[in-house]
Write a structure and sequence with these properties.
By secondary structure, the protein is of the alpha/beta class. It contains 12 helices and 12 strands. It has helices at about 15-35, 45-50, 60-65, 80-85, 90-95, 160-180, 195-210, 220-230, 240-255, 295-310, 310-330, 340-350, and strands at about 1-10, 35-40, 70-75, 100-105, 125-130, 135-145, 150-160, 185-190, 215-220, 235-240, 265, 275-280. The strands form 2 sheets. Strands 2-1-3-12-11-4-5-10-8-9 form a 10-stranded mixed β-sheet, with helices on both faces. α1 links the parallel β1 (about 1-10) and β2 (about 35-40). The longest helix is centred in the first third of the chain and has 20 residues, at about 15-35. The radius of gyration is 20 Å and the shape is globular. The protein starts with a strand and ends with a helix. Bound molecules: nicotinamide-adenine-dinucleotide, 3-isopropylmalic acid and manganese (II) ion. Manganese (II) ion binds near residues 246 and 250. Nicotinamide-adenine-dinucleotide binds near residues 18, 90, 282, 283 and 284.
């Protein structure tokens, strides 16, 4: 019997509610597939900040290092500055555990009506691979003359050959293993940013040469945003820098239904450290506390976690149950046009298992 130690951080806002449903589903699947999932919850996030003046304890990263994986809800509170909360919890975890791949599927499932006209189930099936530890999120910079009219803020992007090549290589391996269009699109902006993104472009060319069986294109990020709306069915694997991947995956989420159906994995492909699985969405203060957040993204992030740990059958069973609930259509949250609550959707997925 396989045993896994999972650290759980619900975080803020709807993160708390969607993880409740994710755990419900994971506990049920564990029972059915004879997997032992040992969950340890950490009450870190904005409430912890209000009490302790920090998002998590000083030794939190050492604590997390002892776990197999991390299962996270969302972070962000309307009364706190996002750069404080996110740089106090989410981003240090991604960096410290070198989760250099952020894998975010955008798939149009049966039962979901895309806001784009004439798109049918499975027409959109994109895997965005987002660089997750450097680029525009490198956290390098500083202020000068802070608080004075001469104030300066400097934010430096960091693109390393090593960092670009490894995430680009992952995207080519994925295009091979998906065996769909066998195509990788690189998203760049080297027409305007002629240093870091040149390192990116050249890394892409070098790695592409190692994969003659995979077709490639390179798109400027503005045009890529346009094509995600205009002809998303043409994409297969898309590899993008940290910021561009962030933006593209919100578009990917909404053209395939909702922020509430987009899962994600922050992955250390080398498995030296825990990886972290979380929905693409944030803490959604506009609907927090109402019990109407869609838990499907969190539930499918749980499936991604199981798949990453080699539990393919259990993962597929979860995905299948979510798809059945979508197709059946009677128990959906308001973001998908229904009137069900977060807990009712979680229960519906469990019932489908
Ligand atoms: P958001 O993703 O929280 O919400 C964007 C929109 O999508 C909102 O209208 C929201 O109601 C809707 N939405 C999101 N998740 C949903 C769900 N599961 N079901 C139904 N509707 C859903 O983005 P935001 O409003 O820009 O950010 C809110 C806070 O979350 C900010 O503090 C931000 O920094 C933070 N954030 C955190 C993460 C994370 O923890 N990974 C991700 C994104 C944003
Ligand atoms: C995401 C979020 C985060 C990101 C923010 C909250 C820092 O938007 O996970 O997509 O940009 O990575
Ligand atoms: Mn985002």
């Amino acid at each position: 019997m396989s045993e896994y130690k999972i650290a759980v951080i619900r975080g803020d806002g709807i993160g708390v509610d969607v993880i409740e449903e994710g755990l419900k589903v994971l506990n049920e699947i564990a029972r059915r597939y004879e997997i032992t999932l040992e969950f340890t919850e950490f009450p870190w996030g904005s409430d912890y900040y209000f009490e302790h003046g920090k998002m998590m304890p000083d030794d939190a990263l050492d604590t997390l290092a002892a776990f197999d994986q991390i299962y996270l809800g969302a972070v962000g509170h309307p009364e706190l500055q996002d750069h404080v909360t996110l740089n106090g919890l989410l981003l240090p975890i991604r960096r410290r555990f070198d989760q250099y791949v952020c894998e975010r599927p955008s798939v149009l499932y049966p039962g979901i009506r895309s806001p784009l006209a004439d798109k049918e189930a499975w027409d959109i099936d994109i895997a965005v691979i987002r660089e997750n530890t450097e680029g525009e999120y490198a956290n390098v910079g500083g202020f000068q003359y802070k608080g004075f009219p001469e104030e300066v803020g400097i934010q430096t992007s960091v693109f390393t050959r090593h960092g670009c090549e490894r995430v680009i290589r992952y995207s080519f391996e994925l295009a091979r293993s998906r065996d769909k269009k066998r195509h990788v699109t690189s998203v760049t902006k080297s027409n305007a940013q002629g240093y870091g993104l040149i390192v990116w472009d050249e890394a892409f060319e070098r790695v592409a040469a190692e994969y003659p069986d995979i077709a490639t294109s390179s798109l400027l990020v503005d045009a890529a945003c346009m094509d995600f709306v205009r002809k998303p069915e043409e994409f297969d694997v898309v590899v993008a820098s940290n910021l561009f991947g962030d933006i593209l995956t919100d578009i990917g989420a909404i053209i395939t239904g909702s922020m509430g159906t987009a899962p994600s994995g922050n992955i250390d492909p080398m498995r030296r450290y825990p990886s972290m699985f979380e929905p693409v969405h944030g803490s959604a203060p506009d609907i927090a506390g109402q019990g109407i957040a869609n838990p499907m993204a969190a539930i499918m992030s749980g499936a991604m976690m199981l798949r990453f740990m080699g539990e393919e059958d259990a993962a597929s069973a979860i995905d299948g149950a979510v798809l059945s609930v979508l197709e059946e259509g009677g128990r959906l949250t308001p973001d998908l046009g229904g009137s069900a609550s977060t807990a009712e959707v979680g229960d519906a997925v469990v019932a489908q298992l």
